[in-house]
Amino acid sequence: MASFTPDISIIEEPLDSLDVRSCITVCRQLGADIREEPSRLVTRGVASITTDQILDVGNSGTTLFLAAAMASLSDTPITLTGDAQIQRRSAENLLNALSMLGVEVHSNNGCAPITVSGPWRGGRCCVECPTSQYLSGLLLASSLAPHGTVTEIDVPILNEKPYIEMTLSYLDRQDVEYERASDFSHFRVKGGAVYKPMNGPTPADFSSAAFPAVAAVVSKGKVELKGLDPNDSQGDKAFFDILKTMGCNVSWRDSSLFVSRTGALHGGIFDLNAIPDALPAVSVIAAFARGETVLINIAHARIKETDRIAAMAQELGKLGVHCTERPDSLVIHGGIVRGGKVDGHGDHRIVMALAAAGLGAKSAVEVVGVEAADITYPGFLDILTR
Q: Does the predicted TM-score (pTM) go above 0.90?
């Protein structure tokens, strides 16, 4: 959003990760001036989008979906691509919606490389959202469409709803004019917005905080997670409610969240529709829990960096944990985690979850492909070492 602000924004305490660097690279290619200073980014945005470069989003699906929508505001063709995983992740639903709004779209059967070209004419579109990022991209772009443009978005299916609440909170800060149905099934957005500077600290990330918490829980240790906001709207905050239900000690003191375990873990039934990124972390906790844990309503976890349902069932099986895979759920029959050699599937969250599992396993866990952790959490393995 700072990259589409005509003024200067100062973003404090940004995460230095591969995904963030991919986003910065793409924003620079779109014309934003982004200066990296100690503990902050100083950004001057662009008035209009123009580039003759191919935008490389790396491994960042968030960057791909948001940037594809924003690039659709340009009257010149803009192409986006990414790594091998990105080129297997379909954006077809988003691209179909853009086509309904007048955008010319070309892709590899819905996958990158993707080329989009405006103008954004507005009107009405319909988009099913197995990932909330499709809708976030449409909401951001439609607010910056030409003055007088009105975009209506029908949303028959929406997963990860808390992330749309986050997007709307940013639009509210920008005084964007929009209407929405109470169940988020329909939006009407007026174009012509001019974003104000996006100043302030980057909120700490609950989805990343899950992994040191997993390490503490499986090793019966204790961790203090600093800088989190108990009032934040991030969906993955619910992960820590799940830990409580399973028998962990979770408490807040000031801006620190403390997680520990002294007794046994217990299984349960958990709906992860709003927080599919928590699947690898919850799966590992469930592997150490007594009884059966059922993670439901997560078919969309199959279209992340990898098929996370299949991958977690496969890798936990190598550690001696019996799992039952279903189309939209995963059943983990907890008990003893034996140890062994596992594959991170090039997925940062799977790598971190399996590495944390090694702290509580009966014997060593060897994780292949640990470099993927740097996509969102550089230094996580150093934390485990300490």
A: yes
